[in-house]
Each structure stands twice: as C-alpha cells, then as structure tokens.
Amino acid sequence: MGLPVVQTGDKAPLGKRLFILLQQLIPQHFLSSLMYALARSEIGFIKNSVIRIVNWMFDINMQDAVVKDPLAYPSFNAFFTRALEPASRPLDSNSTTIISPVDGAVSQAGHIESGLLFQAKGIHYSITALLGGDAETAKRFSDGDFATIYLSPRDYHRIHMPVDGKLSSMTHVPGELFSVNETTTSLIPGLFARNERIINLFETPAGPMALIMVGAIFVGSMDIVWAGTVTPSSKRISHQEYLDQPHAEISLEKGEEMGRFNMGSTVILLFGKNQVNLDGMIAAGREVKMGERIGTRIQA
What we know:
- The chain is α+β, with helices and mostly antiparallel strands.
- The chain has helices at 14-25, 28-39, 44-58, 76-80, 127-130, 135-140, 182-187, 191-194; strands spanning 97-99, 104-111, 116-120, 123-126, 145-150, 158-160, 165-173, 197-204, 207-214, 221-224, 228-230, 238-241, 251-252, 257-262, 266-271, 276-278, 287-288, 293-297.
- It is globular, with a radius of gyration of 19 Å.
C-alpha cells in the first residue's frame, strides 16, 4: 500500500511522511480499544500516572473545571471529559446566532463549492463521501457553508448544540482512525471522509444542519446523549431515523450538551445554501470557545 499523501508544491518532509506511514502500519482499532480500557481504569496508580503525564504534556487548564483537582476524577476518561463551570462558557443568547459547539481551533471554514469541502492547501473532498455516500442528504448542503473545528488534547471535550435543533437521523460510518492533526490534515486526501464518524442531522431554525463527529487514533468511542457510547461494532454503516418516530423525538436547545469525544478529534458543521452567514473571523487557525458566536442565521 502506498503512502496516502497528496503532493502539494514542495515535497513533504520525510519526517511527516514517516508519521503518516506509521499510522498506516499500526493496528489503529486495536490500539484504540486498548486506550479505551486504559482510559477507564480506576486503579489508582494507573489512572493517576496517565492523568499526570497528559496534564504535564499539554498544560491543561483546570481552573474552569467543576472539579479542579485532576487526581480527584475516578478515571482518566472522567478527567478528559470533565464538566466545566457554566459561567466559564457563557452562551451568546441572541436567537439568530450560531455558536461554536466546542472548544478548539478552526481547521477550515467557508462555502461548500461544487459538492466539495476544503480540507487543506491543494486538498478538497466530497461532501457525499463525508456523509457516507448519502447523495440525497448531500444535496441539502450543496452550495452551503461548513466549519471544521479541531479539538486538541488540552481542550474541553464535550460537544454542545450550535443552535436549537430537532434530531432527524444519526448515522455511524465505520472507517480508519488516522490522527486529525495539522500534519495528517495537510497530507491525507479525504481524511475526514475516511475516518470513522457519526453524522447527526438536525432540523433547525437555520435549516438543515449536520453535526459530524470525526473519530481519530486512540478515540476508542464517542458518546451521544440519546444513544450512549458508540464504538466500532461492524464494518457496515448503521443508520437510525428519528423524525418518523414521534415517541422517540429528540429536541435539543442551543448550548445543550449533545455528545462527547473520548480523546481528542474534530467536529464538522454543515449548513444549507443561504441559511447562515459565518463570521469572517472564523478562519483557519482561529481558536474558539464553546458558546462563542461563529455566525448568524439568515432570516427570511
């Protein structure tokens, strides 16, 4: 198997190519399953050692956390998905605003052009592929807008609603588990359409919205408030409709928690054509906090 890299201008440094090759060669899902077990261990010296190492490596700010002592958490995963003081993430309460669903750094944002999303310099990928091959749903976002936000290990890892929404469907797409950091994003074509992901479709005052949770290396699972923990269970796409099941209707308000990443990863937001105006400052490299305004909906 060749390196899944795109040549964009000058040849990528050898170190970066080796980093990609290593990710191809390692058993991604097996290692992620080991991390799943390690992250949930409640054996004191194990969980405390992991927490200390990660805290030291990433200089995690605990001042915003409800429980400020890192070692007070029963497991590393509980520490990693810690709750924050509500006052530390004030919500933009204007009814027309779209807020960031997470803390993170904007990877890319802008218009969806000719059915393609911009991933990195020289790399675009298909919205249909991102949505698991669902061409009909892809049409709903044709010529719309998107925002891709990367969560580093130091970030808050709960995901909240950018706008009020009623859940339409949830689709789990199995896939690879490449890292989603800047190196892999700039070298692996169609990265977000290759990695495992959960596609959550909502009907909102801003029209249809997709909130896509993209898995990554060591992300052994993702949590959804209405479905619990979602882990890779097969190689087949699984799909669940909700709008046609009134007894199972799920509506969430702007700012309400909708899921969690167990380890860091990426969220991709999709909106339909002429439905939202993303703020001009929401550009690659910009850091955002959950609850901060990233755009406004276009009112009819």
